[in-house]
UniProtKB/TrEMBL annotation:
PROSITE patterns on file: LRR
Record organism: Stylosanthes scabra
Domain Disease resistance R13L4/SHOC-2-like LRR: start-end pairs: 116-345
Family listed: Belongs to the RLP family.
Protein name: Leucine-rich repeat-containing N-terminal plant-type domain-containing protein
Location of the protein in the cell: Cell membrane
Topology term for the membrane: Single-pass type I membrane protein
Pfam families attached to this UniProt entry: LRR_1, LRR_14, LRR_6, LRRNT_2
Residue ranges constituting the Leucine-rich repeat-containing N-terminal plant-type domain according to the UniProt record: 47-83
Cited InterPro entries: Leu-rich_rpt, Leu-rich_rpt_typical-subtyp, LRR_dom_sf, LRR_N_plant-typ, LRR_R13L4/SHOC2-like, RLP23-like
SUPFAM superfamilies: L domain-like
Alphabetized UniProt keyword annotations: Cell membrane, Glycoprotein, Leucine-rich repeat, Membrane, Receptor, Repeat, Signal, Transmembrane, Transmembrane helix
């Protein structure tokens, strides 16, 4: 569906105007040739050549776009067009390029500030700077001096600021495209002076205010696009339904996009004005706040309204038309010539009206995605005999697929339908016969609940080109009938439970479909066997086989289709030798992923590949011992992963030079050595870089500051100062891991330049001195890990500014002072707090109880005194038994290259004291909930309020001075896996409820003053006796000391309720034991001699 996107028409207009411009230049050439005979053309004007050279000097040209700008005649430079009559520069076409795939996008662009020297180009008629990077700069006002300009394209240039009002003086301008920037402020009314303008595109900016009515003066305008981000544009409104009358004067308009103009719901004159534009063919009212109320009000105010007969494309998406019946009746009354109708994201529900399929007899494309349409409503569209495309993506269909197709096949649409998209519903059932739609070319059923085997005899439409069953629960193999569909170009069966040998699956696709198939996605299934011959598919461009159970050796003589540009086969168990001969015909290859296999690449040192890769993933494949020299030849590489690849080499300078183009680089887990030279390099992207677990040494180079995430852990880096304290802001660095190096001395106090840092790990180094106060200026911090250094003093109070902190690990250092109360009052997003093994003293501040999201607290091995706060019951996250994770907990937002904020994820990988030992945890596994207050000097009782923390998995209160009894209801902590109360002064009996905790795998109650009989329970008897040792009054299994009843010499004067309960339990179990013994003797049972003797002694002993 067109979806009223201005891009296709924009491209058409651009192409047309570019063609006309080129033709004019050709006319110039012809006239010059006729006038000059064989004398040749006129060279460019010297003043203009100098202006262009100043432009080149001001640009950062990472991709060599201006490399031809040398020599005397600028008219022969790339992108420069001159008049051969005068030698003046008349055109500059310096647009960048973007190529996207699912892994990355490849860009080619200029960046920098446009110099004012261009003002010398007085004769400029054509200027195209589309898709370059002028981020943080404004559109130059001197562009208004290009008085001969006809064509100005500044789309996707990352310009900020306001639209210069001076552009309104370009009286000859016919084409103005400012799309996809970060422009703000109001639309200058002076644009209404551009009387020759035919195309105006202001979409995807942050403009605000009222659209100036002076735009109504643009009587020659053909296409007008607003559709802004930020929901701040509005049309003039007099409060009485008036406003937008100026639209009626745009009598040449064919395309109008009013998307995100939010006050249209309360005005009516604008829609009346639109009805008078007899040339209008496409109208977008996407996300304009229109509702059922608008329809009712419009009927009353404009009873005779009708859309122009010329209107063929209408976008009403992202409004709030809750009643599909009301909406469809309204559309049926006011337009009957629609070809495309987009209603996605409109909250539509209820039943559609019958007249819709009667009046919409021209409709070809209908999009009802993200609505509440019921499957019965499909009947309303079954008799639209022109309908070729129906999209109900992300709907609420739950019926079986056969029933849904039956609704659609009940009318003439069965013959016209060419595209059907029902993906991302909850459609159930198995796959029925699909041949009932003879014209169907695209069938998309991914992300549903389809189950069962694909029938061997299934029939597909004979013209089918695209079939997607991805992300369902299908089983079995691929039917042979798929291979007999001669028009099949794309087959997606990913993310199912398909099984069998891959060889058989490929054979079943080797019918006539082998000649047409271009895209085959079988990833994340259960296919086994080795990689068969794929070269039988001569047209194949993309092959996805990742995350299956492929195994065995890949034949060295295997070949691949010459058209292949994407080959993904990661995460299998394949092995074998890969040589350059297997790539000799793959000149179009752009994406190669063989990661997670055991391939050995034997490539000649001087090999020059026939391809130019954008993505290369060879994790765990053996490339070593040297870095592949052929990587130098890959000029467009954007992602590189050669981690754990057996490389033992000194990294050469050329490698760092090619790395500047990457947006992802992972060379971790190798044996790379040496200094990284601090070259004058600048990454063209903001890359994710991992050099972890190598042997790099020396200072961390400054050019790494431009990374998005940087993992330098487990190396031998020794100097951080130049990296941290270099001039300029590290505007995008969000993650920094320099743990496990040999960094020493004080951490530089220069962290104010890191505006986006969300994750810092400096653990396991030799840092000393105080934690730098400037770390508190990194206000976006989510994770701060300072563990295992030699820091001293107090935690800086500036950290209270880091209110987004989720994890603070300042353990295993020499920090001292009281535990800062501001941790509780300011860091209220905190989920993990570890201050273990420091020199903190004083009591636990009650302010910590404000940390309701806290699920892990470790204050062990300090000098903390006082009592355990009863308000620990406020740790709400520990009161929930389930383990839940909010994805936003592990994400952060930084400004994006395009000006809009962009979200990134991070992993938390850390070392925690768990069950008495240090263990590594990552992400969701960190959600194990625990409290460790061991090895302190805590006093008093264990608060009974702790039993409300029913989600606790680990509780360690050992090695303190706690007294009193173990809370009687401790059995409520049913999730406990680890409980250590040893080496305190606890007394009384072990609560019987403890026996109810069936998940308990580690228990230590030793070295206390506990007494009484051990509660009978499978768990408690299964622990070693050492778990209870040094409790003189305890008896019963698993202890060797058995229990017996003694007559008390004196009754206590008064008993507490708990004392009476203890006596009852002890007497109950004693009588039960005696009863068991008598019964055993009566039945002729056997007791071991030692136990029988001991029991006899007990029975005959004196009271």
């Amino acid at each position: 569906m067109n979806n009223l996107n201005p891009v296709p028409s924009m491209i058409l207009i651009e192409a047309l105007l570019l063609f006309l411009t080129v033709m004019l230049l050709q006319v110039d050439n012809f006239l010059v040739f006729a006038a000059a005979g064989t004398g040749g053309g006129v060279k460019c004007a010297e003043r203009e050549r100098h202006a262009l050279l100043e432009f080149k000097a001001a640009m950062v040209d990472d991709y060599g776009m201006l490399s031809s700008w040398n020599g005397r005649d600028c008219c022969h430079w790339n992108g420069v067009h001159c008049s051969n009559l005068t030698g003046h520069v008349t055109g500059l076409d310096l647009h960048g390029d973007t190529t996207e795939n699912e892994y990355t996008f490849v860009e080619r662009f200029l960046r920098g500030k446009i110099p004012s020297s261009l003002v010398e180009l007085h004769h400029l008629r054509y200027l195209n700077l589309n898709s370059n990077d002028f981020q943080d700069y404004h559109i130059p006002e001197f562009f208004a001096n290009f008085t001969n300009l006809r064509y100005l394209v500044l789309s996707s240039c990352h310009f900020g600021g306001r639209i210069p009002s001076q552009l309104g003086s370009l009286s000859h301008l016919t084409y103005l495209n400012l799309r996809f920037n970060s422009l703000e402020g109001s639309i200058p009314y002076q644009l209404g002076n551009l009387s020759n303008l035919q195309y105006l595109d202001l979409t995807l900016n942050y403009l605000q205010g009222t659209i100036p009515s002076q735009l109504g003066n643009l009587s020659t305008l053909h296409e007008l696009y607003f559709n802004n981000m930020g929901d701040a544009l509005k049309i003039n409104d007099d409060g009485n339904g008036g406003g937008g009358e100026w639209l009626s004067t745009l009598t040449s308009l064919t395309h109008l996009d009013l998307g995100y103009v939010l006050n249209l719901n309360n005005s009516y004159n604008w829609i009346q004005a639109i009805s008078n534009i007899s040339t209008l063919t496409q109208l977008s009212l996407y996300s304009c706040g229109l509702s059922d109320h608008f329809i009712f009000s419009q009927r009353l105010s404009l009873p005779r309204f009708k859309f122009p007969n010329s209107l063929s494309v209408l976008d009403l998406g992202a409004n709030t038309f809750t009643s599909s019946q009301i909406l469809f009746q309204w559309l049926s009354n006011f337009t009957s010539n629609l070809v495309e109708l987009d209603l996605r994201f409109s909250l539509l529900g209820g039943s559609t009206s019958k007249p819709f399929d009667i009046t919409m007899q021209s409709l070809e494309q209908l999009d009802l995605s993200d609505n509440q349409i019921n499957v019965g409503d499909l009947k309303s569209f079954a008799n639209i005999c022109t309908l070729s495309s129906l999209t109900v993506f992300n709907g609420i269909f739950t019926e079986d697929l056969e029933s849904i197709l039956h609704y659609l096949s009940a009318g003439c649409v069965i013959h016209s339908l060419q595209e059907l998209d029902l993906s991302s519903n909850q459609i159930t059932g198995s796959i029925p016969d699909l041949s009932m739609f003879p014209s169907l070319k695209r069938l998309l059923l991914s992300e549903n609940q389809l189950r069962g085997k694909l029938p061997d005899n299934i029939r597909l439409p004979s013209q089918l080109e695209t079939l997607s069953f991805g992300s369902n629960y299908l089983e079995g193999g691929i039917p042979k009938s798929f291979g007999n569909t001669c028009s099949l170009e794309s087959l997606d069966l990913s993310d199912n439970n398909l099984t069998g040998e891959l060889l058989v699956a490929i054979q079943h696709l080797s019918g006539c479909a082998r000649y047409s198939l271009q895209y085959l996605d079988l990833r994340n299934n259960q296919f086994n066997g080795t990689l068969p011959d794929i070269s039988i598919f001569p047209a194949l461009k993309a092959l996805y086989l990742s995350e299956n159970k492929l195994n065995g050796k890949v034949a060295e003589e295997i070949q691949f289709p010459s058209q292949l540009d994407t080959f993904i086969m990661n995460s299998n168990s394949l092995e074998g030798v890969i040589t350059e001969s297997q790539f000799h015909n793959l000149s179009k290859l752009k994406v190669l992923d063989l990661s997670g296999n055991s391939f050995v690449l034997k490539i000649n040192h001087d090999w020059i590949p026939p391809f130019q890769l954008q993505v290369l993933m060879l994790q765990q494949c053996m490339l070593g011992p040297y870095l592949p020299k052929w990587l130098q030849t890959q000029k467009y590489l954007m992602q590189l992963d050669i981690s754990n690849a057996g490389i033992s080499d000194i990294t050469p300078k050329w490698f760092w030079a090619i790395s500047t183009r990457l947006d992802k680089m992972n060379i971790s887990y190798n044996n790379l050595t040496g200094l990284i030279p601090d070259l004058p390099l600048r990454f063209t992207q903001y890359p994710s870089i991992s050099l972890a677990v190598n042997h790099f040494e020396g200072p961390i180079p400054v050019f790494f500051r431009r990374a998005e995430s940087l993992d330098l852990s487990s190396n031998k880096f020794s100097d951080l100062a130049s990296f941290v304290c270099s001039n300029g802001t590290a505007e995008r660095l969000g993650q920094l891991d320099i743990s496990n190096n040999i960094l020493s001395g004080q951490i530089p106090n220069c962290w104010s330049n890191f505006k986006s840092l969300a994750y810092i790990d400096v653990s396991n180094n030799n840092f000393s001195g105080q934690v730098p106060t400037s770390m508190g200026l990194a206000v976006e911090l989510r994770v701060l890990i300072l563990r295992n250094n030699s820091f001293s003093g107090e935690l800086p109070i500036s950290l209270k500014n880091c209110t987004n902190l989720v994890m603070l690990d300042a353990g295993e250092k020499k920090l001292s002072g009281i535990i800062p109360p501001w941790i509780g009052s300011s860091l209220q997003q905190l989920q993990m707090l570890s201050l273990r093994k420091n020199l903190f003293f004083g009591s636990i501040p009650s302010a910590l109880c404000s940390l309701t999201w806290l699920y892990f607290l470790d204050l062990s091995v300090n000098h903390i005194k006082g009592q355990i706060p009863k308000c620990f019951k406020n740790f709400t996250a520990m009161t929930r038994e389930e383990i839940t994770s909010d994805p936003e907990d592990h994400s952060y937002i930084v400004p994006h290259i395009y000006g809009a904020p962009y979200g990134y994820d991070y992993d938390i990988v850390t070392l925690l004291m768990w069950k008495g030992a240090e263990q590594n945890f990552k992400n969701d596994k960190l959600l194990l909930k625990g409290i460790d207050l061991s090895s302190n000097q805590l006093l008093g009782d264990i608060p009974s309020e702790l039993v409300n923390l029913v989600g606790l998995v680990s509780l360690n209160l050992s090695i303190n001075n706690l007294t009193g009894r173990i809370p009687w209801e401790i059995g409520r902590l049913a999730s406990l896996d680890f409980l250590d109360l040893s080496r305190n002064h606890l007394f009384g009996s072990i609560p019987s409820s403890l026996a109810k905790i069936d998940r308990l795998s580690m228990l230590d109650l030793s070295h206390n003053n506990l007494s009484g009989m051990m509660p009978i329970g499978t768990q408690l008897q299964s622990f070693n006796a050492s778990s209870y040792e040094e409790n003189q009054g305890l008896c019963g299994l698993p202890l060797e000391k058995l229990c017996f009843v003694k007559e008390p010499h004196q009754e206590p004067l008064a008993k507490t309720q708990e004392d009476e309960h203890d006596d009852f339990i002890e007497a109950f179990f004693m009588s039960m034991g005696l009863g068991f013994f008598v019964a055993l003797l009566h039945s002729g049972g056997y007791l071991a001699p030692s136990y029988s003797t001991a029991l006899a002694d007990m029975l005959t002993s004196d009271s």
